[in-house]
Design goal:
It is built from 3 helices and 48 strands. About 5% of the residues lie in helices and about 40% in strands. Strands 12, 13, 15, 18, 19 and 24 form a 6-stranded mixed beta sheet that branches. A hairpin with a 2-residue loop joins β36 and β37. The chain is mainly beta.
Length: about 650
Amino acid sequence: MRLLWIAFAALSLVPQTPTPTPPPAPTTGTASIAGTVVNDEERAVPVRRAIVTIAGPGLVPSRSAITDDDGRFLAERLPAGRFTVSVSRAAFITSIYGAKRPGKPGTPVAVTTGQRVTGLTVKIWRGAVIAGVVRTEDGQPAAGLPVRVLAARQTNEPTIFTLNNNGAKTNDAGEFRIFGLQPGAYLVSVTPPVLQGMPPTSVSEAEMDAALARLRTRAPSAPSAQPAPTKPNAVLPPDPAPLAGSQPFAYSAIYFPGTPNMSQATPITLVPGQVVDNLDLQLQRVATASIGGIVTLPDGAGAPSARVQMTQTAPPGYTLDAPLVASATTLPDGRFRIPAVGPGDYTVASRATPAGAVSSGRGGGPALWAETKISVAGGDTTGLSLNLAPGPALTGRVAFAEGTLKPPVDLTQLRVALVTPASLTRRGPALGSEFNPAPPLALNADGTFEIGGIPPGGFLFQITGPGVGPTGWWLRSMISEDRDVLDRLIDIRPGSPSMNVVVSMSDRHTELSGTLRTSTGQPQADVFVIAFSPDRALWGLGARRVRAVRPGADGHYSMPDLPPGDYLVGVVTDVDPEDWQNPALLDQLVPTSAKVTIGEGEKKVQDLQTRRDVRPSASTSSSRVPLVFLRTPRGRRHGPRLGPSR
């Protein structure tokens, strides 16, 4: 028995593999959706071997089907619900049923139990193509260089350049081809090879002869003395020139039609299926400089191991995506040097963690910040001084209002974070500060939190975790000094004071919903319904009181969890997602909008009806957006604003 007990005890010490969480059970039903996929030609042709995907809430997993030789598809065993129907195929732009233009939002398809939806026609647009060749300075093919396109989009706000997912590398002949591009304007750039170590220099033949003559007549040099120790706040001496009269250089990124200056680039405007295949780009050399200085702590001592980033400063009217140029880490005495910097305007910023501060190890913890702006025109820049100062903190407490649901038992499973508005859109990375704030932070057991060392920029507050979502708790308000700071960006400037807030979570969900119909009573789905606050101060990027949605095929629209208050509800025939919060567009919507008020936890129903006539609007984006006049479903015409329908 003793031996058996020992064997059992040994087995019990073997690590047990945790049982994996089983995947959710597939949802099935008796409904189906069928239709045909066609291309965007004037005489539409069925597209075969396209992948059709049906997706939506309550459908796990999504359903997929492949079109036959006649472009037909059938998706079966669907439950009741509202689903999107998207189509993808190589060389085409992924498109959604009901979209008026490629890459735009589509129309949800509503199905009931056992319903057979047939006759859908889903249009898919062929992507545009940009192709060409990259050459070296002497006209030879440049192989293996990355070429990318940047979408240039004009709005009433500054033009935004964002990195498109499409890119290519040049082949042995220097050729590149980028396909599947959506319609729009693009900048094309080629990135030169990275130069390692000391940058190469350019000298004339006469200068080289003179240098060789000096070397032939030079006397033996004396042993060099040991350099004197550098004082903590001393500025690095300028880089020694390799040869008298030489000029360090680097290969610059080149933008079509052949300029290193992005503001002088020429956008290429594409339409669906267009092929531009005659681009010719040639690498260029530009003079470079060395940038040096010192980073100091608040007490004046040099900051060791501080991170220094150098980023491009966008020209007036532009914003750059991921504009990092170079970085460095300071020496023990706080000094830094960044070599081989090309001409241009830059922001030099630094971040450091105070000695002895507790950090999460993931970039969190208190932080010190500093930044300055410089212009580089070929000559070295030394003597920069970056004086670190603490960023402000956001402290607070999360409270759960009394309701049907019970608050989470373990509050440490919830995470709070500050994010940039751009990170929540297709524009991608942060467009403001080059340094992001701390990653999501766990709440303390008592619901308190502290986000310290916030960098300059505009931020939105988020809370995530178990129980937070459309059917659980939602972020109702965040009060600081009797003001709900969720209604605007949290604007952090150098020297901003710290902020203390009370975050309120609620399980009483609001909803604005209704049905949009034409003047003849038919459901209208090929438009956008926009709800927005009548207070213009609450508009802008990231505004939570501005919401847009595309009605379903049955004309039904829904906007859950709008903060209680007054709203205007308008309709536009077509709009880009980034324009929903464009003040110029909302200004034009005011005279044609209906007025509604949403109370705490209220489910407001606002049916809408459009008239046939539309009014052309001023251009608010790359396309004109007609605004639709509304009237009550009974047909009685009202003034500029309409009351809720009865």
